[in-house]
Amino acid sequence: MISVKSTGAAIAKGALPYLCRYLGVNAAFRAARSKSLLVLTYHSVVRDQHYSGVHSDYTVSLKTFREEMTMLARSCQPVSISDLADWWTGKADLPKHPVLVTFDDGYMNNLTNAAPVLLGLGIPALFNICTGYIESAQALWILEIYWRVLHWPNATIPTPGAGIDRTVDPQGRALLAGSVREACKKLPHEECERYLDRLREVEISDSREEKEEVFGFLDWDGVRRLKNKGFEIGSHTVEHPILTRISLDRVDHELRASKLAIEEQIGGVCRCFAYPNGSEPDISSAIAGRVQEAGYDFAFTTIGGFCSRNVNRFELGRICIPGNLSPSAFLNRISGCYSLVKQYVG
Q1: Distance between CA atoms of 304 and 320, rounded to whole angstroms?
Q2: DSSP secondary structure letter of residue 90
Q3: 23-47 pLDDT per residue, tens
Q4: Does the N-terminal or the C-terminal CB of the chain have fewer CB atoms within 10 Å?
């Protein structure tokens, strides 16, 4: 039974972005943060026929992305990593309402779908890539776990950690896939790899075209094409392990090997790094120090909030943009009002 309280909370959560937009709350928040840098995080931008909403944490439809970038260009001033560097060193000021658009992982659809929209609107962007997946047919490990649980063909499925089989409820499959994915993020990376190997023992039937559209990675030629179009290429490690779940020796390898590979392939400097997952439990001061020692200029988390020059440049916050936002909800996020909404209604 659905309680009145939970129903009321859901209604409030859906209505607040509209109220914030039409009552001028968003505008007030934007005015108060006009000199602070907004950094957005995207992942995968898929053609409309391949967007189902199932992977909405990581995917945005091309139609929605075009609409969001159009709104962004009207309400903010897009800036580049070079602009960020000049601002940070005091060489130049940023314009009012500056915004930096970033992408994580390194999907082919960043080149085929996202880049034309960005170029058409004159929006710079930073693409942070996992070098170990470039030119690979393999899906990113955390998304492969989600995808395999989502499409699991058997009546029971092994679970991470203790490994006890769990009954698969077809109606709650997406919820189960999401909970398994989040559970794996909290485990040592080697344990996640063993669990994924168990899932791979069962063959999954799927749409190859849809899988390539959603999960397919760039090749190095595609990376160079993005660079030649004027976009910045950053690192998102080699294999996308959550850095607090691996040894510091492997952290150093993930940071340095990915940076070296990018620089060799693009013939330029890799200045930026994005932490895998990037929430508070996924970073530490020790790891941020190693990012600096590896030679990066800036590093980005997924901890929401605007950026100023008095924060650590190796722990810059970003606001994630999922694929299921209404226009009002998108404007709510880029205004800075979203954090207040989240605080009160979850």
Answers
A1: 7
A2: T
A3: 666 667 666 677 899 999 999 999 9
A4: N
